[in-house]
Amino acid sequence: MAAVTSLSFSALTQSSFPSARNLVSNSDGLRFRTSFSLHYGGFRSSNSSPRLVVHCMSSTSDLATVADTKLNFLKAYKRPIPSVYNTVLQELIVQQHLMRYKRTYRYDPVFALGFVTVYDQLMDGYPSDEDRDAIFRAYINALKEDPEQYRADAKKLEEWARAQTSSSLIEFPSKEGEVEGILKDIAERAGGKGSFSYSRFFAVGLFRLLELANATEPTVLEKLCAALNIEKRSVDRDLDVYRNLLSKLVQAKELLKEYVAREKKKREERAGAQKANEAIATCLGEPQYMGL
C-alpha cells in the first residue's frame, strides 16, 4: 500500500470485485468433538460367566451451525431486503459466523469498529433508516452477540481517535486510559500471550482509527501494526480488498438508483396515460348537444 490516504472511503476506484468470502482470513472449520466413555462392570447369572458391560455416551460441542445463524437472522428480520444489499449481507454473515466460532475468537472493540464501518458503508443509502438499524440488530443477534455493545464500542473508539494525532495514536503503550487499555490488551494477546484471531474487520477498524486521527503518513500504519504485534502486510492486503468491495458496491447502488428512477418514470407515464384515457372516456360519455 503506497499510502494510507489512498484508501480513503471516497476514493473508490479499483475494478476487481473480490467475493465477500475473502472477508475472513485463515478461518477454521467448525469442530465437533465426539467423546466416548466406557464403564466396565461385571455381573454373574446362574449359568453365565462374567461379562463386560459397555455404556457408550456421545456428545457434540454446542456450536451453532451456519444454517442456524442464517435462520436466526431470517427469523429476526422477516421483511424483504433489496438484492444489492442482501447478497453481500448473506456472504458476510456466513464468514462472520466462521470468525465468531473460531477456537481463538475473542470479541474486541477494534473488530467491532471494523464491522460497524463495513456495515454502515454497505447500507449507506438504504431506503429506510429504521429498517437499516433493525437489520443490524438482527444480524448481530443471530451471531449471539450484543448489537448495542458493537455500536457503543465503535462510538467510543471513534471519539478517542478524533482526539488523537499521528504521533499520539502510536504512543498508546506508554499512556493510560480506557481505549489505551483496550489496545494494550490486543497487543498482548496478538503477541502470543492470549487468544487473538486476526480478521479483515480488524484491519478496517485500524484504518478507521487512522482516518479519524488524520494520520495520513504511510509510516503511521506500519508503526501502529508493530505496536499491536500485527503483520502490516496482511493489513495492507485486506484494506485493498475492502476498498475494492466498496468500489463495486458504489457501482451496484448507482445501477439500482438508475433502475428505480426508470421504474418511477414508467409508473408516472402509465398513470398519466390512464388519467388521459379516463378524461376522454368521461367526455365521450357526456350527452352532446348540437344547435340547429
From TrEMBL:
Coiled coil: 242-269
Entries under InterPro entries matching the protein: Thf1 (IPR017499)
Record keywords, A-Z: Coiled coil
Cross-referenced Pfam families: ThylakoidFormat (PF11264)
Presence of keyword Coiled coil: yes
UniProt record, GO biological process: photosystem II assembly; protein import into chloroplast stroma; protein import into chloroplast thylakoid membrane; thylakoid membrane organization
Domain of life: Eukaryota
GO CC terms, sorted: chloroplast thylakoid
Key word Endoplasmic reticulum present: no
HAMAP family according to UniProt: Thf1 (MF_01843)
Protein name (record): Protein Thf1
Organism: Rosa chinensis
